[in-house]
């Protein structure tokens, strides 16, 4: 592809990403993969270059731009070489004109910025929310650091995380499949808040494809029982093969019906030592991976998410044994989804209490603990550990 054709491809992709954000369509990564699956003539250098342009444009615009071209015009303003690719050639974009719309530069949408500030995340922290995330892996408990460091001498130990390593971006993780799982340091840290150990019964209520289920199972040394649940059949179906690859035979999966979750959980009422709730959320803590997600969130969507979080907490409450723990996690930095949810739960459930959380990363916040990209170099999370009355 010529440089001009790459710019045109980025514009087309951005148009698709903007529309998907508006209409609840697929994530940018998926759209990029689909785009190139249909254009086999594009080589790996073309794909990389276009991808970089697309993500640079997404990161530059706090609010969704009017069009892919407006977003690329914004980048072209600061980059003469890029501006020169608007050359009107056969596969390239039309020449730039002085009066065409240019996207407004920004970091976060205005209303989310206000919510972040209410949660104590000021503008100085916002750039870190959309920086590129590092490549973190979690070593299986029975795999020694020495073995992995011999394979990847440039890997760095993540302070405080006994099983965490940070790898140079682009490291071929598949070459150590089975020994390591790709997992952000923040995800590893919040999984530790479950304090899962051998022999426990753990319900992972919102298990998805099982990223944290595997960490919980590893912490249990493969002894005990994990019931991994979700309402999303496709996500949950990816969990069993991952658990098998990780050598975990203690994981069983249960598909739940939204709003009728308890029907499939009747046998587990008041039995779990730990119920882990990695609740659906806005993902404001994971914009480093999906920066276009900040174009998707609306006040209505946030209200629906907080209602689901409160509902899932009610379901979880019925599963915890007397004296057991409910661990609530969101990869969000907004108090509406984190601290406020936990406060409301505690107000509504007499006898429950919040336990202090001792994690190597993050800091206490209200009745829980928060990790932020700017301070901790991880995805953003809120986690609370709530204890049932005995
Ligand atoms: C943050 S994701 C979970 C990520 C997963 N724990 C991991 O570590 O990869 C939240 C999950 O909650 C699920 N979910 C949404 N509503 C639910 C409900 N009512 N009961 C159980 N799971 C639900 C979603 O399908 C989604 O997979």
Automatic annotation (TrEMBL):
Residues that, per the record, bind S-adenosyl-L-methionine: 230, 278
Family matches, as Pfam families: Methyltr_RsmB-F
Any one biological process term the GO annotation gives: methylation
Domain of life: Bacteria
Keyword entries, A-Z: Methyltransferase, RNA-binding, S-adenosyl-L-methionine, Transferase
Entry annotation: catalytic residues: 331
One MF annotation (Gene Ontology) recorded for this entry: methyltransferase activity
CDD domains given in the database record: AdoMet_MTases (cd02440)
SAM-dependent MTase RsmB/NOP-type domain span: 102-389
Family as reported in the entry's similarity comment: Belongs to the class I-like SAM-binding methyltransferase superfamily. RsmB/NOP family.
Name of the protein in question: RsmB/NOP family class I SAM-dependent RNA methyltransferase
Origin species: Sphingomonas olei
């Amino acid at each position: 592809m010529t440089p001009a054709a790459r710019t045109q491809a980025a514009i087309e992709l951005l148009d698709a990403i903007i529309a998907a954000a508006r209409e609840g369509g697929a994530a940018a990564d998926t759209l990029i993969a689909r785009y190139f699956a249909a254009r086999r003539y594009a080589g790996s250098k073309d794909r990389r270059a276009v991808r970089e342009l697309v993500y640079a444009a997404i990161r530059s615009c706090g609010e969704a731009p009017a069009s892919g071209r407006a977003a690329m015009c914004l980048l072209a303003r600061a980059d003469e070489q890029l501006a020169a690719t608007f050359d009107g050639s056969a596969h390239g974009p039309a020449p730039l004109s002085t009066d065409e719309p240019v996207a407004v530069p920004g970091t976060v949408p205005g209303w989310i910025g206000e919510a972040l500030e209410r949660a104590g995340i000021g503008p100085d922290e916002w750039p870190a929310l959309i920086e590129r995330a590092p490549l973190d892996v979690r070593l299986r408990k029975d795999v020694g650091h020495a073995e992995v460091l011999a394979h990847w001498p440039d890997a760095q130990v993540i302070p405080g995380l006994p099983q965490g390593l940070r790898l140079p971006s682009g490291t071929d993780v598949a070459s150590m499949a089975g020994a390591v799982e790709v997992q952000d340091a923040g995800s590893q840290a919040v999984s530790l808040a479950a304090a899962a150990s051998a022999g426990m019964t753990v319900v992972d209520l919102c298990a998805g494809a099982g990223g944290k289920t595997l960490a919980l199972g590893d912490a249990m040394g493969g002894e005990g029982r994990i019931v991994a649940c979700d309402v999303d059949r496709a996500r949950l179906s990816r969990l069993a093969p991952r658990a098998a690859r990780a050598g975990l035979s203690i994981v069983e999966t249960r598909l739940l019906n939204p709003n009728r979750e308890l029907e499939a959980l009747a046998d587990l009422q008041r039995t779990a030592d730990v119920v882990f709730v990695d609740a659906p959320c806005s993902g404001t803590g994971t914009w480093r991976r999906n920066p276009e997600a900040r174009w998707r969130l609306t006040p209505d969507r946030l209200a629906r998410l907080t209602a689901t979080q409160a509902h899932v907490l009610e379901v979880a409450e019925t599963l915890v044994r007397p004296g057991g723990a409910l661990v609530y996690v969101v990869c969000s930095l907004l108090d509406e989804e984190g601290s406020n949810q936990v406060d409301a739960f505690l107000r509504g459930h007499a006898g429950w209490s919040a336990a202090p959380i001792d994690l190597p990363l993050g800091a206490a916040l209200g009745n829980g603990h928060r990790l932020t990209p700017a301070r901790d170099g991880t995805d953003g999370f809120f986690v609370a550990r709530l204890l049932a009355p005995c």
